[in-house]
Design goal:
By secondary structure, this protein is an alpha/beta fold. Helices cover about 35% and strands about 15% of the residues.
Amino acid sequence: MKIFIKTFGCQANYADSEVLAGILVENKFKLTNSTKDANIIIVMSCGVKQPTQSHVISFIKSIPKTKKIYVGGCLPKIINLNNLNIDGLFDTNSITKILELINKKHRILFSDKKESRILKKRIRKDIGIVIISQGCQGNCTYCGTKFARGNLKSYTINKIKKEIQNFVKQGCKTIHLSSQDNGCYGLDIKTNLPNLLEEIIKIKGDFKIRIGMINPEYALKFLKPLIKIYKNEKIIKFIHIPVQSGSNKVLKEMQRKYNVNDFKKIIKAFRKEFPNISISTDIIAGYPTETEKDFQDTLNLLKEIKPEVLNISKFSSIQKTKASKLKQLTSQVIKQRSVEINSLKNQLKKNF
């Protein structure tokens, strides 16, 4: 029996796909890179943005009805997929039970209890994706991922270290630390991200660590110890701090737990210590309450900070979120603001 796994979205989804692949190979299934060759299609979906949701649904609809289709990832808990030609649904807490779906013991597997997973098969040989926690501590008004992945559940430092040690033994040169928010790691188990990193850099071997997204409130909370750890040669000089808006009013309405000055303080501190560091940030264009002044504040912030990496999202309403209940800006306004930010992004690139 041949299985094709299609993965959408973030590194957490790719790590989940690796767990799935390992379980399937261990149980004598064969993986294929072609939907045509596959008897079974497993879709690891993403629901973070409405356009991404549309891509996922379009892909599912494109699969011939002769194939068995199972859909996991975030989308099953965000929108209703029962009107599609799907043989089974599973959420992010039911990855290891995939065989129960394939063997028709269940059609839907949802759980609120987060799994402890063992990675079996890597998609890339040179990069190890290590998920340090599931869920987050935020309640952002626009985010649907919270519905799918829930509240923070951190994995122990020992478990994470063992996984990294195994990757290094297998020849991994780069370790990606990933989660919905690396910044809040450990706060549910009486530790934190700096403590984790202190232990990781003690691991022997020739490898580098790339730290994934850290929300500003936690980067600020652990600023001094983070900068200290970043001085270690094992840490790649890259940091992803998503600001989302340059307006304090909009940040408050998004239920983000920091202000623009907090963000500036973090960036200034890292650039002072590491002049060549790569700063990555995210912007949402066209949040429902964003006025023209709010938007100009965002442009001004970007001109001041000049991030090396800028991820731009056009606001899209996600079902069940607080932001979906607000009066929406017109698609023309959202598109125009996105175009302006992209134009600024291109200008900033020319100056590097």
